[in-house]
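WARN  no MSA supplied for this record, continuing single-sequence
INFO  ligand: fructose -6-phosphate
INFO  echoing inputs
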Amino acid sequence: MGIRMPIKVCRDYNEMSRAAAEIVADHIRNNPRGILGLATGSTPEGLYACLVEKYKSGELDFSGIISYNLDEYYPIEPDNEQSYRCFMDRHLFDRVNINKANTFVPDGTAPAPDAFCRAYDEQIKAAGGIGLQLLGVGRNGHIGFNEPADELIGGTHLTELTESTIKANSRFFASADDVPRHAITMGIDNIMNAGGVVLLASGKDKHDALTALLNAPETPHIPVTLLRRHKNLTVLCDEDAYYG
Ligand code: F6R
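INFO  complex generated
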């Protein structure tokens, strides 16, 4: 593959999850009051399970950590099981000693989403910016919910999900009709401004997006390719995603 960037090709999903957890754990140990940017979806579930294990065995302390999630469906109630707030509570926040008041997920009920988005960005900036951002990648190359477009938006914003994303995410809902059509997502500048980015890609479904990141010209039509400009990007993938 073409462009040089730190990439670790792991044998399988479990190995990738463990490798990612090591990076996050090191970051937390070195920055006990650090700010994490977190992602949801199937990809980081194993990573969060590894972090919970590390917490339970006394290796990790989340008490000083602050977190900002990348995105949330809109509209959605925080107690809807498919909300990203519920996902985070279920997989991480309720299982470690993080202070829940320091965990931020975009508000899927915000009555004025634009004002909410501006406030989210200001809050992240005032907190000192994201130290380490975790990312998955969509089959179409989206990161967060920055979907393929002629131009990507810099800050947190309300966005319309593409049909392919609605279809991909319908696996979590009773039917595709139940998937919210919009989401609030951090923008490309939020991601690029993070001190470090760890991108995870697992499974054959992600082969095209990963290949584009490693080989294709940079284009907003494959948002993940913009990450190449990040000075501190680490890519972790499994063999299925790498070889297809
Ligand atoms: C989730 C997110 C999305 C996912 C992507 C991949 O917070 O921002 O970009 O990372 O849709 O989802 P999975 O991991 O379910 O394949």
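The pocket of fructose -6-phosphate is lined by residues 39-43, 70-71, 136-138, 142-145 (CB under 6 Å).
INFO  checksum written, moving to next record
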